[in-house]
Amino acid sequence: MTDSLTPLARRVCDAMSAAFPGPAVGVEALRAATEAGAAARPVRPVADVRDGTADGIPVRVYSPSPAPTTVIVFFHGGGWVLCGLDTHDGLCRELAARTGALVISAGYRRAPEHPFPAAADDAYTVLTWAARNHPRHQLLLAGDSSGGNLAAACSLRARDESGPRITAQLLLYPALDHRLTTASAREFAEGYFHTTACMRWYWQQYAPGRDAGHPYASPGLAPDLSRLPPTLLVLADCDPLRDEGLAYARRTGAEVHLHTGVFHGFLGAVRTLPQADSALAGAAAWVTATTAKAPAPEAARP
Q1: Exposed / middle / buried, residue 122 (Cβ in 10 Å: 0-12, 13-18, 19+)
Q2: Tens digits of per-residue pLDDT, 196-226?
Q3: What pLDDT, on a 0 to 100 scale, did the predictor assign at position 202?
């Protein structure tokens, strides 16, 4: 059978899969495995990187030089259970260096210790803090996988509550629909690093029961997806979550960059996988063009 991944993507995918033990080992062992893998990755220099807090939420702020006029609030992936500021340090550095934006990475509370809406509430807290502390900056939301879910939820809440004005959102293979009933969830259920079974387990940890259907838990199921900021979805073709991203794009009119021959999480292989570099370059170009076209921001609303 012909492999849907490119030969290099298959090698990277299999190496990442071999290093990931799966939910059966328990939450703490899973967290240790993801953090160990991140420690070995090379990082891109950024002019200033500082840890701090945003109204009590841990953040890491990446400030490129010269002084940026755009702020990206970034939420890391990991199924709302795994990962943190360290595991996504490399991706945040790439975003800061490639866009010239100030990147604020949020260390939100994780499930299962803190189920929905804890992470979504923390994400919104960081967004409002960023708006308050960086008035008259273009304000973007970004995140990968479950972090893309949090970014999309923040956009909905900001709209619903007349919160901070968001210039754009950058969603990297986001988790948007707890049902996992799409064709891609079946076609790529196994063998492509991120499995549908793992995604179901993540949802069970984060939003058990009826909470999973809440619009801020499953933004792709929100009854109203109008009046959202310009959006780019960066999707992997060989991903269980591909089709829910495409469905969200159809409902919102979002732009889609669909990368073939790669898998969920491929952006973590920047400088190893050419598609990761080209995807980040395309996303950075979109951010630059979108902020250039946006009207000058007003002072942040509280």
Answers
A1: buried
A2: 999 999 999 999 988 999 999 999 999 999 9
A3: 98
Residue given tokens 């370059």 in the structure block: 281
144: closest CA among 268, 228, 286, 249? Answer: 268
What residues act catalytically?
A: 145, 239, 264
Global pTM value: 0.96
On whether the CB atoms of residues 205 and 111 are closer than 8 A, the answer is yes
Helix (H, G, I), strand (E, B) or coil at 53: strand
Q: What pairs with residue 257 in β-bridges?
A: 234
Query: Token match 């948007």: residue?
Result: 176
Measure the CA–CA gap between 171 and 169, rounded to whole angstroms: 6
- Cα 39 from chain centre: 20
Look at residue 300 and tell me whether its pLDDT is greater than 50.
no
| Strand order, beta sheet including 102-106 | 48-54, 57-63, 102-106, 70-75, 138-144, 168-172, 231-238, 255-263
Cα four-point dihedral sign 193, 140, 88, 81: negative
37 pLDDT higher than 80 = no
Distance separating alpha carbons of residues 184 and 243, to the nearest angstrom: 6
Better-predicted residue by pLDDT, 35 or 185: 185
Could you tell me which residues come within 8 angstroms of residue 85 by beta carbon, excluding any fewer than 6 positions away?
51, 58, 59, 60, 76, 105, 107
Q: Which residues contact 151 (CB under 8 A, 6 or more apart)?
A: 73, 75, 123, 141, 142, 143, 169, 170, 171, 174
